[in-house]
Design brief:
Layout (H helix, E strand, L loop, with lengths): L12 H15 L12 E2 L4 E3 L15 E4 L5 E9 L7 E3 L5 E4 L8 E9 L5 E9 L6 E3 L1 E4 L3 E3 L5 E5 L6 H10 E6 L4 E7 L2 E6 L8 E6 L5 E3 L2 E3 L5 E5 L3 E6 L4 E6 L2 E7 L12 E4 L2 E9 L14 E9 L6 E4 L17 E3 L1 H10 L5 E5 L20 H5 L26
Parallel strand pairs: 1-8, 9-18, 11-19, 20-28, 26-27
Antiparallel strand pairs: 2-3, 3-6, 4-7, 5-6, 7-8, 10-12, 12-15, 13-16, 14-15, 16-19, 17-18, 20-21, 21-22, 23-28, 24-25, 25-26
């Protein structure tokens, strides 16, 4: 086979430089320059384990590519499907064989570009294409949350699966397919809350004014023998300012910060003995201008000294069991001095309105100094930040075989709003 002449290195810096100058002068920058030679068509020298003709490829089998020439070797293989998703693979040390290491997607068309060198070192290239068969097995759907929009820097990403995934190897396939990218970039990880639910959070809070893109590459991918991924709608989020509120139940104050700077200090009242507010980091779940709160919904007997039935305004929710930050005009005398509520954080109507208008979903409210239980990570809102980063990483199927740390959970007995 006649290939473009290649120049071999010459020992000695001066002689090599002179040789290169002479070559450049002789070639004059033409297409025949030895360092810009185009690869020859090596399609006939490439082997693979693909079936003959147009037969569909079994997506359960890895793709293998090799070379016929005993003296030739593969230098690079790039395999992508129609969506641009790249197939990972490994090349043998002798360059004779490349084998895919990530699963092929079912019902997809792939283009494989192979670069090689022959025995004389001349570059060659060839292209293969094939389609994988469509499976009729059960599909796995993924729904990302929250809905698109702007959130606080404490907002976790959620992924709800349509079918349970219990096997660790299958969980690893799912995690590899779920991608979270932020600008600025952060270090983050998924945590398996249960067989059908994952949460994603960074090591620290999201940066302020960040863009977050959540995508799935599971379409057509085999998760288990009976389960294949399907296309998933991508999610785009942004974060606002870094708003943090620190509520000190012992000092009866809430300190609100924007991007690290204190913007308000508010006298508050929190849960009294027997109704102590939970300690720990909570995330704003929703904002409701008006909420009816009744003692009967949390087990307080009607007519007792603790019974109440109130319409509450400027209510910022922080747990599903009913903890809010809200206006409490009936307890103004205690605010800043004593804890008299049934678990919520109360303040004047004017300050509650200010707080309501300042925070958004995903903002952080940390409670310290209470006699209450610790906020649980997953069963009563977003308590994700109450796990250390080491404990959080253990909830990932990709973390060196470590089992998820399952913190003690406390039953959420109060399932309705409390004042």
């Amino acid at each position: 086979m006649d290939h473009t002449l290649r120049i071999r290195p010459v020992v000695g810096g001066t002689l090599l430089a002179a040789t290169l100058v002479a070559v450049a002068a002789a070639c004059g920058g033409s297409d025949d320059h030895p360092f810009t030679a185009k690869p020859y068509d090596a399609a006939d020298e490439i082997t693979s384990n693909l079936p003959e003709g147009d037969k569909k490829v079994d997506s359960d089998r890895p793709l293998e590519v090799g070379v016929k020439d005993d003296d030739g070797r593969i230098t690079d293989v790039t395999a992508t499907d129609a969506t641009g998703r790249r197939l990972a693979g490994e090349l043998d040390t002798d360059g004779k064989r490349w084998r895919s290491t990530s699963p092929l997607a079912a019902g997809s068309r792939y283009t494989v570009r192979v670069s090689m060198e022959d025995g004389d070192g001349a570059p060659g290239a060839g292209t293969l294409s094939f389609e994988t068969g469509v499976t009729k097995k059960k599909t796995l759907k993924v729904a990302f949350g929250p809905k698109a929009g702007t959130y606080g820097v404490g907002q976790p990403i959620t992924a709800e699966l349509s079918a349970p995934v219990k096997d660790k190897a299958a969980r690893a396939v799912v995690e590899r397919g779920l991608r979270v990218r932020s600008t600025p970039a952060v270090t983050g990880s998924w945590y398996w809350v249960d067989d059908k639910t994952l949460h994603y959070r960074p090591k620290e809070y999201w940066p302020a004014k960040a863009r977050i893109d959540v995508t799935s590459g599971l379409a057509g991918i085999k998760v288990t023998d009976a389960l294949y991924g399907t296309p998933t709608k991508a999610l785009k989020l942004t974060t606002g300012d870094r708003i943090e509120a620190i509520t000190d139940a012992a000092a009866h104050t809430m300190t609100v910060k924007r991007d690290g700077k204190v913007i308000n200090t508010i006298p508050v009242t929190t849960g009294k003995p027997g109704f102590d507010t939970r300690n720990g980091i909570k995330v704003v779940l929703s904002k409701e201008y008006s909420v009816r709160m009744r003692g009967e919904t949390i087990g307080i007997a009607a007519g007792s000294s603790d019974s109440y039935d109130l319409q509450v305004y400027y209510a910022t929710r922080v747990t599903w069991s009913g903890e809010y930050v809200h206006a409490a005009p009936w307890s103004v005398g205690a605010q800043g001095y004593a804890n008299v509520s049934h678990g919520c954080t109360g303040m004047t109507t004017g300050l509650a309105e200010w707080f309501f208008n300042t925070v958004r979903e995903g903002d952080i409210i940390q409670f310290v100094g209470t006699q209450g239980e610790m906020m649980t990570p997953f069963d009563n809102g977003f308590g994700d930040w109450n796990l250390s980063w080491d404990a959080w990483q253990k909830g990932s199927a990709l973390r060196n075989g470590a089992e998820p740390e399952r913190p003690d959970t406390v039953q959420a007995a109060r399932l309705r709003p409390q004042v």
